[in-house]
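FAQ: What does a ligand-bound record look like?

Like this one, built around zinc ion:
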Amino acid sequence: MKRLFCRCGNQVFFDSQQCLHCGARLGFDSDQLIMRALTCGDGDSGRLGEHCETVDGEPFRHCGNRVDFDVCNWLVPQHSDQRLCFACQFNRTVPNQSLPGNQQRWRVLEEGKKRLFFTLMRLGLPLVSGWRDPGGLLLDFVEDGRSREEYAETFASTGYLGGVITINTLEADSVARAAAREQLNERYRTVLGHLRHESGHYYWAHLNPDAALRSEFTDLFGDEREDYASALSRHYAQGPPPNWRERYISAYASAHPSEDWAETWGHYLHIYDALETAAAHDVIPWGPDALDMDGRIAQWRELSLALNELNRSVGHGDAYPFVINSEVERKLAFADRVIARLQTPQ
Ligand SMILES: [Zn+2]
Ligand SMILES: [Zn+2]
Ligand SMILES: [Zn+2]
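The answer part, i.e. the structure of the complex:
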């Protein structure tokens, strides 16, 4: 993540809606990837849905999902015929806002989605919504019987199928997420982690890899045609193989070759974003674009160790509880080659 600033010079967060220093109303400009301070209507008290402009007179509107539900801080250019910002146009199902707790959950999901999108945009990956293009991406944020009596007979798992990333909104509930993490004996479980992982399934399908790339995939991850349902049942019944740490980034990656790929992709995005953030704050000299894959991994090993120590210093668990072994290094290098392919228009 880049550093983002208000017009007064104060550094603000990616999800900030207002500058805590000068009080300016803020919105994220997804074309320029910068934060904009805006005056709306007849002044800062103007209504959100009205015409807003920057100090230089550039006109914008706030996303409809900010105006109606206060869950988004992205902007829509005034000339756009869309009411929603770029990222909100990818939503297909959103949590029912008449039910208690769902506004907060949706906000958490949007924050994760936007951070994912930011990195995808920084990497120059194709990002088109399934509403515009049948090969595009859509997101479903759904509830099921585990979170609501109203949906007692339903079960929705987080996953990816045919261009649609589904996230169970319960993942946005910190108590439920911690319970799932304990139950599944995981050390790391976040909304952002889920979204990054699922985007890996999408991009692999989107790339439609040729035979050579597929065979490289099989050498590294295994045969992705292995029966998925039985592989997952086996994983949940028996757990990962005892030596999984020698070959995989996480226990879940050992469940099926496709999951290993998606876990690898998710970690690629983690590493890219974290290195970019660290470089933007002068914690490390070079950002990810100035480093090759070996350089990124070396830098990340050093940085993630420091990050874990810092976390422990303030009484938290490790921020990055993973070990990048040499097999995982090769898999990350493969993800880097896949990204290079995706960056080139087909
Ligand atoms: Zn300010
Ligand atoms: Zn939006
Ligand atoms: Zn998956």
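Follow-up question: can I read anything off the structure? Yes, for example: The chain has nine helices and eleven strands.
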